[in-house]
Design a protein that fits this description.
117 residues, mainly beta, 7-stranded mixed beta sheet, 4-stranded antiparallel beta sheet
């Protein structure tokens, strides 16, 4: 059974940091690129960050998070991470990880991040 389970979300104050984790099972994690997306209430889901299957390429970031967020992965642990620092109220959203290979994509159920002013 394919699963992506996100964790690490929570309520923090502006300027603080959080690290999200995404644990995969049921598929060959190291074959898949990983992306983090987020969706705020009343808004469309948006891309946040992406990393290649082996983690050796140039990571991609949305302009809104560049310099504040870092995506990484540990293929030996089937886990991806999103380190978030200098959080802002506008970062408040449900955060999802997705594993992508060709036309195949798996999504997790999301973890809520709330940043108070």
């Amino acid at each position: 059974q394919v699963q992506l389970v996100e964790s690490g979300g929570g309520l923090v104050q502006s300027g603080e940091a959080l690290t999200l984790s995404c644990v995969a099972s049921g598929f060959t994690f190291s074959n898949y690129a990983i992306q983090w997306h987020r969706q705020a209430p009343g808004k469309e889901r948006e891309f946040v960050a992406g990393i290649s299957s082996n983690g050796n390429g140039n990571n991609l970031y949305a302009d809104s998070v560049k310099g504040r967020f870092i995506i990484s992965r540990e293929n030996t642990k089937n886990t991806a991470f999103l380190q978030m620092s200098s959080l802002k109220p506008e970062d408040t959203a449900m955060y999802y990880c997705t594993a992508i290979m060709a036309r195949s994509a798996y999504w997790g159920q999301g973890t809520q991040v709330t940043v108070s002013a």
